[in-house]
Amino acid sequence: MSVPSSAAPARPIGVIRVLTSDDEAAVATHGRVIEERYGLPTVSRCIPDQPHGIHDDASEARAEPKIVALAQELAGAGARALIISCAADPALQKTRQAVGIPVIGAGSAAAAVALGLGRRVGVLGIRDEAPPAVRAVLGDHFTASARPRGVHRTTDLLAPEGPAAVLEAAAGLVESGADTLLLACTGLNTIGVRPLLERRLGVPVVDPVLAAGLLASYRDDDWDDDWDEDWDEG
User: Fold this and answer.
1) Is the pTM of this model over 0.85?
2) pLDDT, tens digit, for every residue of 152-188?
3) Which of 23, 95, 158, 220 is the most exposed place for a label (fewest CB within 10 A)?
4) Which Pfam families does the annotation name (predicted)?
5) If residue 121 lies in a helix (H) or strand (E), which one and from where to where?
């Protein structure tokens, strides 16, 4: 049995952004983070006509069919797995049913990682309540949720006062007993606030984009295919 060859280029991880932008560099932000952290090739695309992303039930409902359609495009173009880069995990089950490749929701991925780091998880997001997908995974380990003051949409995090408001809300969660923080908005990755929170508050902080990338790193279809062929030949 020979060692699997790495000569062929790896198929990319498709990153679905739910915030519409014409700025290709901005759309690729989460994909670049995953590439730099895990060495995975990515291709990033955003859904149309949602300039403020997903921030309430109505915007989530509008986004769901767009996510499924974009997932089908990315799968058809050769993506080996997909990441829905939104902590609400919008259309996750519908997307899994629509494509024949693994689909990872950033919210449930972050919750799974948080369970490995602490017992009392505080959830920091842009809604008054923690996303149901996150709560479902955390179960009894969920301790409280918080929304930064003045933040109601992911684009609000880009305001000059955004990082300070995030720190204030996160500190409140730690004071209430959280031993681990979960960032329940992928826009918090965009503003790069995780290192600041960990330095100031002294607790692990789980980034949903990094968590999704971690799970994607466990799925390498190209390597598996080569290994299967070599095993059969061996």
Assistant:
1) yes
2) 888 888 888 888 999 999 999 999 999 999 999 999 9
3) 23
4) Asp_Glu_race
5) strand 121-125
